[in-house]
Write a structure and sequence with these properties.
The chain is α/β, with parallel strands linked by helices and 386 residues long. The protein is 38% helix and 16% strand. The strands form three sheets. It has a seven-stranded mixed β-sheet, with helices on both faces. A five-stranded mixed β-sheet has the order 10-11-14-13-12, covered by helices on one side. A two-stranded antiparallel sheet has the order 1-2. The longest helix has 20 residues, at 250-269.
C-alpha cells in the first residue's frame, strides 16, 4: 500500500473508507459475518474468515496506516494484544531494550510473560541516548520505547535512538499512544513500528478497547500478518467501526486536548500544594526543547506531584467532581488516577521508586470540558488537601 500524502485532517475522515462499492454507503459498513462464501474450494473472493480479515477491520487498518505514514496497519483486540503479538517475533535467549518508564501492562508483559519464556529485558532511561547503545548486547533483537512516557511524561529522541538501532540492525518500536499521529509520527523519524492502544486518543470516547501496529517494513509486516491471524487477538467488526468513527474527530479533539492541558499545566505549576508538574509543554520541563522539535503539540496528559505522601493524593483524587477517578485516558471526558495504586501497580515498589513514580504522583487526562470548569474542579480538590 502506498503512503497517502493527503493532510492528516483529511486522512482521518477518508483514508481506507471509500463509499462501499456494493450499495454506495458513505459510512463504512459493519460486516459482522464470521465467514465468507467462496466461488470454489480454496478460492475466496477477498475474505474467507473474519479472524484472518474483515472488511470493517481492513478499513480501520488502512486508515491507521495512512495517519502514521506507514504502508501496513494491523488492528488488535487491545494495546496489550498488539504488544504481545509483536513480541512473538522474539525467541528464547533474545534480549530487549526498553525505556524505563512504560505502562504497567507493558512492564508486566516484559517481566512476567516474556522473562519466563527466556526473553530478557533491560530498562534504561533513554533521555541519555548513549545508555541505549551501552545496553545493546549480541543477543539484543528489539528496542522499545514510549514517548511521551507513561506516567512521567519524559521524552526520548526518536531520531537519535532510531539511528543507533538501525546501525545495529535492530527494529525500534515506538508506543505512540500518548501523542497520537496528530502530534508525532515516529516512522518519519526513523522508527520501524508504531504501536497504539487505540482505546485512548485514537478512539477517544472510552467505549471500546483496541490496539494497533503500523510499519513500512515489508518483511516484518509479513510476519505480523501471520502472527495476527495465528494468535487471533483481533477486534470485532463493531469495535473496528467504533474506532473508525472516533478517528474522524481525532484532529479537532487533539487540538483542544493540547490547548486545555497547556492552560491547566501552567496554572498547576504555580498552585499551592503542587510540588512538581510534569508536562513537556512547560518551559520548565527538562525535555521541552525536544518536545518543540519532535512533536506538533505537548499532548493532553499532565502528571503532578503533590506535597506530602500518598494520603494527600488520595484526598485530592476523591475530591474531584468533573475529573472522573478512573484508569485509561484520551477520552472526551477528563480522568484522574493514581499510578502507584492503579495503572502501574503491577510494577514492584522498588522499581517505581527507582524510575521516579512516587506515591504522591497523580496523572490527569484532560478532556474536552470547559477549561474553566476543569480548573475550578482542580482548585477545589487542591483546597481540600490544604
Amino acid at each position: 500500500m502506498a503512503v497517502d500524502s493527503r493532510s492528516l485532517d483529511t486522512l482521518a475522515i477518508h483514508a481506507g473508507q471509500e463509499p462501499d462499492p456494493s450499495h454506495a454507503a458513505v459510512m463504512q459498513p459493519i460486516v459482522l459475518s464470521s465467514t465468507f462464501a467462496q466461488a470454489e474450494p480454496g478460492v475466496p473472493k477477498r475474505f474467507e474468515y473474519s479472524r484472518s480479515g474483515n472488511p470493517t477491520r481492513e478499513a480501520l487498518e488502512a486508515c491507521l496506516a495512512a495517519l502514521e505514514g506507514g504502508r501496513h496497519g494491523f488492528a488488535f483486540g487491545s494495546g496489550s494484544a498488539a504488544t504481545l503479538t509483536l513480541l512473538h517475533t522474539l525467541r528464547p535467549g533474545d534480549h530487549v531494550i526498553s525505556g524505563d518508564d512504560v505502562y504497567g501492562g507493558t512492564f508486566r508483559l516484559f517481566d512476567k510473560v516474556l522473562k519466563p519464556m527466556g526473553v530478557e529485558t533491560t530498562f534504561v532511561d533513554m533521555r541519555e541516548v548513549t545508555r541505549v547503545e551501552q545496553a545493546i548486547t549480541a543477543k539484543t533483537r528489539l528496542v522499545w520505547m514510549e514517548t511521551p512516557t507513561n506516567p512521567l511524561l519524559k521524552l526520548f529522541d526518536i531520531r537519535k535512538i532510531a539511528a543507533i538501532a538501525k546501525g545495529k540492525g535492530l527494529p525500534l518500536v515506538v508506543d505512540n499512544t500518548f501523542a497520537s499521529p496528530m502530534l508525532q509520527r515516529p516512522l518519519e523519524l526513523g522508527a520501524t513500528v508504531v504501536m497504539h492502544s487505540t482505546t485512548k486518543y485514537i478512539n477517544g470516547h472510552s467505549d471500546v478497547v483496541g490496539g494497533a501496529l503500523v510499519t513500512s517494513d515489508e518483511t516484518l509486516a509479513e510476519r505480523i500478518r501471520f502472527l495476527q491471524n495465528a494468535i487471533g487477538a483481533v477486534p470485532s467488526p463493531m469495535d473496528c467501526y467504533l474506532v473508525l468513527r472516533g478517528l474522524k474527530t481525532l484532529p479537532v479533539r487533539m487540538r483542544q486536548h493540547v490547548k486545555s492541558a497547556s492552560d491547566l499545566a501552567a496554572r498547576l505549576a504555580g498552585a499551592k500544594g503542587v510540588r512538581v508538574v510534569h508536562y513537556p509543554g512547560l518551559p520548565s520541563h527538562p525535555d521541552h526543547a525536544l518536545c518543540q522539535a519532535q512533536m506538533a503539540g505537548a499532548g493532553g496528559m499532565i502528571s503532578l506531584e503533590l506535597d506530602g505522601g500518598i494520603e494527600p493524593s488520595r484526598r485530592f483524587l476523591s475530591a474531584l467532581r468533573i475529573f472522573t477517578l478512573a484508569e485509561s485516558l484520551g477520552g472526551v471526558e477528563s480522568l484522574a488516577e493514581h499510578p502507584a495504586i492503579m495503572t502501574h501497580a503491577s510494577i514492584p515498589p522498588e522499581v517505581r521508586r527507582r524510575v521516579g513514580i512516587s506515591d504522591s504522583l497523580v496523572r490527569l487526562s484532560v478532556g474536552l470540558e470547559d477549561v474553566e470548569d476543569l480548573w475550578n474542579d482542580l482548585e477545589r480538590a487542591l483546597a481540600s488537601v490544604r
